[in-house]
Structure formats: structure tokens, C-alpha cells
Specification:
- The protein is 57% helix and 15% strand.
- It is of the alpha+beta class.
- The strands form four sheets. Strands 9-11-12-14-13 form a five-stranded mixed sheet, covered by helices on one side. The protein has a four-stranded antiparallel sheet with strand order 5-4-7-6, sandwiched between helices. Strands 2-1-3 form a three-stranded antiparallel sheet, with helices on one face.
- A hairpin with a 3-residue loop joins strand 4 and strand 5.
- Helix 14 runs antiparallel to helix 15 and helix 15 packs parallel to helix 16.
- The protein is elongated and about 130 Å long.
């Protein structure tokens, strides 16, 4: 039992080594499975040296006159000497954490070293060390992608490894009587002490890693909460109002003394100490801020003189100043201020840099979104410009011809014409309209066209009332209907028929416009939806624009489909999801 107590004393060294190892970045990379071949080599050497330390701290067991006794030794051993040691701890841990190659490498290093020390168990112990490293490596492979082995499995692996060492000593060490006597003395102490040491080593690693993961998770959760709220305020871009709200949020969550945000020329917000003279709307005061605006590089002035605020008695002693960029150009800065140089911590620098990058990225997103909105409005205005001139001219001619003969009809057409253009002008103000609103717009157009063509045009509508609230981009139906009348029914000698149907199909609203006109050639069909087609009567924008906007809002499956046969007619159809999650967009739906 005395030998067991001596070996247990060495566990303190194991604990110290385990804690030190967790401080190495390559060891943390091993825990996160980020290792490469060179890292595995370094870890094999590291754990091999750990095994050598376990050898040197071992207890020398000697056989004299059929008696056994032990004394610490670190030099070359006599033939009748053996070591009760903790060499296996480093080798097995290497294999458990790094896999077979680390276990084998550590085993070879520690095993060869043991052989050089001599003694009648030198070869047996050296070979056993290599086998134990491989065993631990295969256990690592068996456990798959677990980040860290559990203490229970580590304990069991240690027990099996040490039992294997005892068997190898009995099989190889000679004389056999001495090997048997040695195993009888050291087996139980080494199995218990070393397997416990391996388990304790794993417990320490797990506790350190888990605690650091917990801290990182807490910080990540905190930053995500900040990010989520920041993005809400940045929806309208970086203004004095949004900058003030962001500064208040950061002051509350980061624990700094003051937070300030500027654009390229003036202060947008300043919350915290120094807010009596760092006022929103005023020009940038500090020289440190001006330098960052010019250089575009983060700066950490660590004294009042470096900050160089012209206001006497300014309490801002230390600052972290991060540039805000958009399209590679500096558009402002984010500043964390402290009243005492000792308050600043490395984590504050990381947080400031991260938030600066986030703000810069969001400013670019807002800018891109605004540009996209302008482009969409321009496309709609181009579509409106295409619709208005020829339709207005034809409509007025029709109304003029009816004023004397059918004044009531002329009056109704004027009302419909007014409704049509009101809808047309308001289209760019809305992201979505309901199918009911879009159908009313198309109905106004059809009433005017039917008055113009008379009995030469027959229009049928099949609208499912339950689908009236389905959202659509504005100016979706009318261009398709106009396309059917202007091009599909043009020059038709028979009565032109137009059928507009809206029905539900598998959770979608299927909308189709069918005519019995001249049809479209197969080559022309593909061009109509994927490019702006030049024609003598228009810009070719209508079908292309509608198709692109449907795809943009609802995905590829919502794009237009054209089925046509020459001299028999054309059907243009598309489908949109009935229950599409459009809460944000639907908030913009108001009565025209």
C-alpha cells in the first residue's frame, strides 16, 4: 500500500501539467478538431515528453535476496531494477485526444526512452508503452467525433492499458520469476494510480474547456442580443436617431464609460460621460477621431493627451476608435470611451472591432437595399411609361366617340380611366397589393378595352372569392392582359376571347390568362421571359418585368409560364403560395 500512496502523490504533477496544457493554442485546436499533420507531430512530441517525465518521477523497484524495495531513481538502472511509474498517463492521454498517430508517436518516444534506461523490464516496458499508445488511439477512433472523452471511458482505458503492460512484462521480461514478483507488487498500485490519473487529467481538461465554452457562449449570446437590437435601429440607415439608440444599447450592455458614433464630419450620438460637450450635430471634436477618419484604421489612444479633446476637464481618458466603412470608404467611427486607463480590457477591443465590422456591413446592406428599391421603382415607372401613352390616347378617343351617343357609358369609362391611372401611379408606393386590388385595376383596363372593341372582344373571368387576399406585386395582371389583347388578338378576324381564371391548386393560387389569338412561336416564347425584347410597338419590358418581380418575391417556381400554339392561342400562367409568410410586406398594404 505504501507504493500506492507514493504513486498517488504524483497525481499532483499530472494535475499541474493538465492545466498548463489547456493554455496552449495547439492543444485547444486539438480539442476543436482543427489539427493538421504538423500539429499532430508536435502533440506526439509533447505527450511523449509527458511520458518521459512520468518515467523520471517513477519509483525504482529492486529485487535483492528475494526481497523487494523501492527508491526514486533517474539515472541508468541496474539489471535487477524496474520502475513503478506514471509514464502511461501521458501516452494514453495523447492517444485518447489525438488519435492513433499521436498515441503511437508519444508511445515510441516514451518507450524508446524507457528502453535506454536499462533494467530487466526495459524492453517489455518500452514495447508496452507503444502498445498502450496505440490502444488509446483506437479508442479515440471508436468513439468517433466526440470532442472530449468522458472520465469513465478514460478510467476504463487506463485500467485496460495497465493490465496489458503487466501481461507484456510477464511475456517478455526475464528471468520470469523476477517479472512475476515485480508484477505482484506493482500491478495493483500502477493500475489504480495511473488509471485514476488519466481520469483526473480528462476531468480537468473537460472542466476547463466546458467553462471556457460556457463563457464564450455567454459572450456570443450577449453579442447576438446586441446585434439583433442594433439591426432593428439600422433599418433606416445611420442617422442621429438610430445612432443614439445604438449608443444607448452599447453603453448599457458593454459596461464602458461612454459610447459615441460619428459620420465623416459631425457627431451623430454621444451617450455617457462627456455628453455635456460632445453634442450630436456638432463637428467632430477630438483629434484622435479625426485621425481614424483620415486613416481608416482602428486606434486606441490611452491618455487624455492622445485623445486631445479641446474641452478642458474632459473626463474621457482612454478610447477605442473603430472606423465604419461602406464600399471601402470611411463614413464614420464607433467609439468606446473609458474614464480610467485600467478599465480597458482586451475583450473590449475585440467587441469594438466586431461591432464596427457589423455596423459597416449593415450600412452596406441598407445601402444595397435602398438601391434595389430604387431599381424596382424605376422598373415600375418604366412599365408605367410604356402603358400610359398609347392606352391614354386610345381610351380618350373611345370616350370622345361615346360622349354624344352614349353619355352614361362615356361617364363610366371616364371613372374607370381615372381609377386605372390612380392605381397605376400608386403602384411604386407598395411592395404588394391584394389579388382583389390587382383584379380591380385589371377590370378598369378591360372595361375601357371592351368599350373600344365592342363585340369583337369577349372577356370571361373566373375568380375564386377565397383567394382575394393573396398578395401580388403591383402591376402584375394588367400587363399580362394587355399583352394578350394587343399582341395575341391583334389582326384576328374572328371574335377575340380572353379568359382570366384564378383557382386554388395544392396550396397555391393558380392565375391564368388565356386567349384564342395568333399564338407565339416556340423560339419567341423563351426570349420573352428572359430578356427585354425590342418590338415596333413597345419596349418588350412588360413580360420580362413581371416575370422577374414574381421570381424575386416568391422564387423560381412562381415565374411566368407560356403555353402557345400558332393560330390557336396563348395561355400565360403563374402560381403563388397562398400562405406565404409576408407579414412585413403586408403591413404596407393600404387602400389606394
Amino acid at each position: 500500500m505504501y507504493l500506492l500512496f507514493l504513486m498517488i502523490e504524483h497525481i499532483g504533477l499530472i494535475v499541474a501539467i493538465a492545466f498548463i496544457l489547456t493554455r496552449f493554442s495547439m492543444f485547444r485546436d486539438l480539442m476543436d478538431h482543427k489539427h493538421d499533420s504538423w500539429t499532430l507531430v508536435k502533440l506526439a512530441i509533447l505527450f511523449g515528453l509527458f511520458g518521459i517525465i512520468g518515467t523520471y518521477t517513477g519509483i525504482s523497484v529492486q529485487i535483492k535476496s528475494d526481497a523487494l524495495f523501492w527508491i526514486p531513481r533517474v539515472d541508468t538502472m541496474a539489471f535487477d531494477e524496474a520502475l513503478a511509474n506514471s509514464r502511461v498517463v501521458g501516452v494514453v492521454i495523447g492517444g485518447l485526444l489525438g488519435g492513433p498517430w499521436v498515441g503511437l508517436g508519444a508511445g515510441v518516444i516514451a518507450g524508446l526512452h524507457r528502453i535506454t534506461l536499462g533494467g530487466f523490464t526495459a524492453l517489455a516496458c518500452g514495447m508496452a508503452t507503444i502498445v498502450e499508445g496505440l490502444l488509446a488511439g483506437f479508442v479515440h477512433m471508436k468513439l468517433g467525433n466526440r470532442r472530449i472523452i468522458t472520465p469513465g471511458k478514460a478510467l476504463l482505458t487506463g485500467i485496460v492499458a495497465e493490465m496489458m503492460q503487466m501481461v507484456i512484462i510477464l511475456l517478455i521480461a526475464r528471468p520470469w520469476e523476477n517479472a512475476l514478483a515485480l508484477v505482484q507488487v506493482i500491478a495493483l498500485p500502477m493500475i489504480l494510480a495511473n488509471s485514476a490519473g488519466i481520469a483526473i487529467f480528462v476531468v480537468i481538461i473537460r472542466s476547463v474547456v466546458i467553462e471556457e465554452d460556457r463563457i464564450e457562449a455567454s459572450q456570443a449570446q450577449k453579442l447576438l442580443g446586441i446585434t439583433d437590437q442594433m439591426l432593428i435601429h439600422l433599418q433606416t440607415g445611420l442617422t442621429e436617431a438610430s445612432a443614439t439608440e445604438i449608443s444607448k444599447l452599447l453603453l448599457k450592455t458593454t459596461g464602458v464609460s461612454a459610447v459615441s458614433i460619428t459620420d465623416h464630419e459631425k457627431i451623430l450620438s454621444h451617450v455617457g460621460i462627456g455628453d455635456d460637450h460632445h453634442l450630436p450635430g456638432h463637428a467632430v471634436l477630438t483629434e484622435a477621431t479625426k485621425r481614424v477618419l483620415q486613416s481608416g484604421k482602428m486606434s486606441i489612444p490611452k491618455s487624455i493627451d492622445e485623445i486631445h479633446c479641446p474641452e478642458k476637464g474632459c473626463p474621457l481618458a482612454v478610447a477605442i476608435i473603430v472606423p465604419l466603412k461602406k464600399a471601402g470608404e470611411v463614413v464614420g467611427v464607433l467609439k468606446f470611451y473609458f474614464s480610467n486607463p485600467k478599465q480597458i480590457k482586451p475583450v473590449d477591443e475585440e467587441v469594438a472591432q466586431g461591432l464596427g465590422r457589423l455596423l459597416s456591413h449593415q450600412l452596406e446592406v441598407v445601402s444595397a437595399r435602398n438601391q434595389a428599391q430604387l431599381i424596382r421603382e424605376a422598373e415600375i415607372k418604366a412599365l408605367q411609361a410604356q402603358i400610359n401613352p398609347h392606352f391614354l390616347f386610345n381610351s380618350l378617343n373611345t370616350i370622345v366617340s361615346l360622349i354624344r351617343s352614349q353619355p352614361d357609358s362615356a361617364r363610366k369609362l371616364l371613372i374607370q380611366l381615372g381609377h386605372f391611372f390612380r392605381q397605376n401611379l400608386n403602384a411604386s408606393l407598395h411592395e404588394f397589393v391584394t389579388l382583389r386590388q390587382e383584379f380591380a385595376h385589371a377590370r378598369a383596363y378591360l372595361d375601357i378595352e371592351q368599350a373600344r372593341f365592342g363585340q369583337r372582344l369577349s372577356v370571361k373571368t373566373e375568380l375564386n372569392p377565397q383567394l382575394e387576399e393573396v398578395p401580388l406585386p403591383p402591376l402584375t395582371l394588367q400587363p399580362l392582359i394587355e399583352n394578350g389583347i394587343r399582341h395575341g388578338l391583334k389582326g384576328l378576324e374572328r371574335i377575340g376571347e380572353l379568359i382570366i381564371s384564378v383557382r386554388e391548386e395544392d396550396g397555391y393560387a393558380l392565375i391564368a390568362i388565356r386567349d384564342n389569338g395568333i399564338g407565339i412561336s416556340p423560339e419567341r416564347v423563351g426570349e420573352l421571359l428572359h430578356s427585354r425584347i425590342q418590338s415596333q410597338e413597345g419596349t418588350g419590358l412588360a413580360l420580362y418585368n413581371v416575370n422577374q418581380r414574381l421570381i424575386h418575391h416568391f422564387g423560381e417556381e412562381a415565374g411566368l409560364h407560356i403555353e402557345s400554339e400558332l393560330e390557336k392561342g396563348t395561355c400565360i400562367w403563374f402560381k403563388v403560395p397562398i400562405h406565404k409568410a409576408l407579414d412585413l410586406e403586408m403591413k404596407t398594404l393600404n387602400q389606394y
